[in-house]
Design a protein that fits this description.
It contains three helices and five strands. By secondary structure, it is α+β, with helices and mostly antiparallel strands. It has a single domain, classed as HIT family, subunit A (2-Layer Sandwich), CATH 3.30.428.10. Strand 1 and strand 2 form a beta hairpin. It comes from Zeimonas arvi.
Length: 133
């Protein structure tokens, strides 16, 4: 069964498209946390960033950058949050690779936070050794 983003891309469902290339497309989020909130999604139905090929992952960020520049300019944003989530535990709500470009305003009440733990430097070195690529 196609994902909602596949249905949007194919035209089965309407979307206010702002960008498309051979790997990704972007459209206004129907939820609009702030005016100018855009979703950039892969055309192929990869579930997560880790499933995507490198070309698609790079295209996702290239498009996000271009859109963030336009959003910041056109909506006079104080800043821009780019959010990409993977799997339910990582806050992903749609099982199709995408990211949000969200224009921000000081005091806009949009929140995102986590508790900081501040491990010792030696712990950071050990963690880095486990994933060094």
């Amino acid at each position: 069964m196609p994902t909602i983003f596949e249905r949007l891309y194919s035209g089965e469902l309407p979307c206010a498209r702002v960008y498309a290339d051979e790997h990704v497309f972007a459209f206004m989020d129907a939820g609009q946390l702030n005016d100018g909130h855009v979703i950039v999604a892969s055309i192929r139905p990869y579930e997560t960033l880790m499933d995507a090929d490198e070309e698609t992952a790079a295209a996702l960020m290239r498009a996000a950058r271009r859109i963030a520049i336009a959003v910041e300019r056109e909506f006079s944003a104080d800043g821009v949050t780019v959010l990409q989530a993977n799997r339910a535990a990582g806050w992903q709500t749609v099982p199709h690779l995408h990211l949000h470009v969200l224009p921000r305003r000081a005091g806009d009440a949009v929140t995102l936070g986590w508790p900081r733990r501040d491990p010792p430097f030696e712990t950071l070195q050990a963690l880095a050794a486990r994933i060094r690529v």
